[in-house]
Design goal:
The protein folds into six domains: 69 residues, Phenylalanyl-tRNA Synthetase, Chain B, domain 1, CATH 3.30.56; 112 residues, OB fold (Dihydrolipoamide Acetyltransferase, E2P) (Beta Barrel); 212 residues, Phenylalanyl-tRNA Synthetase, Chain B, domain 3 (3-Layer(bba) Sandwich); 68 residues, Phenylalanyl-tRNA Synthetase, Chain B, domain 1; 194 residues, BirA Bifunctional Protein, domain 2 (2-Layer Sandwich), CATH 3.30.930; 78 residues, Alpha-Beta Plaits (2-Layer Sandwich). The protein contains 23 helices and 36 strands. It is of the alpha+beta class. The protein has a seven-stranded mixed beta sheet, with helices on both faces. Strands 5-4-3-6-9 form a five-stranded antiparallel beta sheet. A five-stranded mixed beta sheet has the order 11-14-17-18-19, with no helix packed on it.
Length: 808
Amino acid sequence: MLISIDWIKDFVKVPDLDANEIGSKFTLATAEVEDVLSVGDHLEAITVVEVLEKEKHPEADKLNLVTFTNGKDKFQVVCGAANVRVGMRTAYAPLGITLPNGLTLEPKKIRGVLSEGMLCSEEELGFAEESPGIIELDKMFDNPELGTNMLTLFGQTKDVLLDVDNKSLTHRPDLWGHFGIAREFATIFDNELNNPFSDSWVADLKAKFSSEAAPIKIKVEEDTSCLGYFGLSLDNVKVGESPSWMKRRLQAVGLRPINNIVDISNYVMLELGIPLHIFDREKINGDTVVISSLKSETEFTTLDDEKRTLIVGDTVIGDSQKPLVLAGIMGGLNSGVDESTTKIFIEVANWKAAEVRKTSTRLGLRTDSSSRYEKTLDSLMLERTLLRTLEYVLKENPEARVVGDIQYDGPNLLEIKPVSIPSSAVKINKALGKEVSFDEMKRIFNALDFNIEGTAESFVAHIPSYRATKDIETGSCLVEEIGRIIGFDNIDPISPKLDISPVKLSPAQKLHRRMKNFMVNHASAFEVMTYPMIGPSLLKKAMYEHKGGLELINALSKDASLMRESLAPSFLEAAAQNAKNSSSFKFFEIGRTYHANDKDFVKEESVFGALYFDKEATPFMELLNDTTRLLDSANINYQLNERNPKFKSNAINEEWAGIHPFEFYNLRIQGKMDGVIFSVHPLVLKQFKIKGNVSIALVNMSAFESREQKDKTKYSPLAKFPGSTFDCTVEVDNSVAVGSILSSLSKLKIKELVTTSIADIFVQEDKKSVTVRSEFLDPNNTLSGEFITEASNKIVETLEKNGFPLKK
């Protein structure tokens, strides 16, 4: 979520600190700031200029050579805008600045003519989504002064945006609006909050209500998710363009301006954190808005012009004939405000969090509204939100008038019981491990709007309603509030005085540690952790069929609605991200897969997986050798086997289109096909936009990880003498298992033969060439040429004796 510091300044004085320091303090006290962004720097460098001359480009009919001045110097650019004219005043961006679209202006020849920057359109300035030509400042302002920068001309200021991690705000619904963030700033930086929502402010706005009957009444039926519904009607509304300050703020935080009425609804939501909807009142049939639960399946077209199927029990807002809004999520296309709207109905409501999330997840429709409602909002904020919306509508529409007064239906909000929590200064200090005076505690609690009654020995904290919605619930919450404001980094860490004895590791834990150590220290791979929950879109991209797998009923989202049956799709997703920035990499994971099982409902498998990527060459052989060495180091018996339709792999669905036809080996582990090593088919790599080669190894460990594996690793000092390698290539039928070639050499009694491995495989139509690499090493002597020749001959003889002739 993007937070505008300029917007925050409407409610609190922001200290004159570096933007990154402000972000750091907010991170330590409240929520993680992922990034700090500057907005408007480019406008300070873009100035008003006047066009002096315009002539055709000698090499292009649609381009002009434009000469202009900023009042001091003359410049020339190549310009393709159709509306450029002599005498006009427009905006000039000099060389070296970066525009909002990411374009950095550099000296450039266009059709042979050097262009010294750019004359800008509203789109290039960041003022509009699109524009037909360069901005005409002389039509917007009365004789704008040459050389004036755009910030000054448009009365704007530079802004700083804090990109706050949404996940760190899930327990704080009050922080999903700028006013709530400003409240935090006031507490963190010990400044006074400017709260414009006083009793007199409420009275002034209510004085604008009329005594006539409200044209739209409200009815909330039983068994809905509604926790309160407010509505207000206005006439003589004119739909048009929003003021520049409002458009600028909306654009800064990522929303596209539409028109003044829709923009006001979005603006108030981003300011106060409470979503709302504004209807075109003439599109409402009858005189009553009804909040009800659907009694039958219904087709509904939302504002994004998507048809969606609503089911029995979904809460909707409707009129006498049809649903108008999917409660808490999105309005309908049939009730939205457009250019012809003159009569509006403003609604502000609250809904049960679980119901909104359930419906949103089922439909795969996550919106700004649903993201807020699912956090559990404060119903006592609804009227304030409605009045704030009214204030902005009247400000932009002085001729508009309120028809009737506020309409409400739903639970009695006066019956909402306040939350009060007993505690003491001693309890808080003991939990914190730091002495904080009761006066300092009261100062912090008062700044947080907590009302404290009592003494240091025993007091009661009365929690404001906006912090009492699944946020502040126990005495531990009070401890946390004091701790985060004084700064957890200001609490001296003290080691706990406990008897610590080493934990005995299970056989599985020992095996996992051994495998991780090998992959990191010997294979130079990184460990990753991918989500066990995936979505249909990932499987579709991977061309991986989800056969009878487990589907979650209450999924977090559509992208996390299935329990994975294989690590492979998740690995490819991770590889796609890393391949953008690396020419080669390796990673591994020890995770779990889940399979439907009639007997036990679900069968969980403990799986080791590794993925190797290389932009140039296939990493298949490297992965094959590393995997076999890994199994050797873990004392796990295995055999390499070719693909055989009689013996299906338990580690992967061999019918998956992602398996390369020529780079595939099964691992028979302790008699079962529980391992597989393969390269990924280019067709699937293309789906993930991976340019390069990917190989994957998967090993099901459930059958053996619980058994104690003897560690046969023996210490040996680093060799003092050089070793030697011998490569030879044998040619065999495609049906011959590569593992059998290596097995034939295992009985050779050559003590200097350290390892044998597969260096390369070249598959032809009915034959394949397999290069076997043998490594020799004598820790006490340098190997002689005679020995190497003799040992190499023995290897060749053994291979040929076992039916593996050298390639001719």
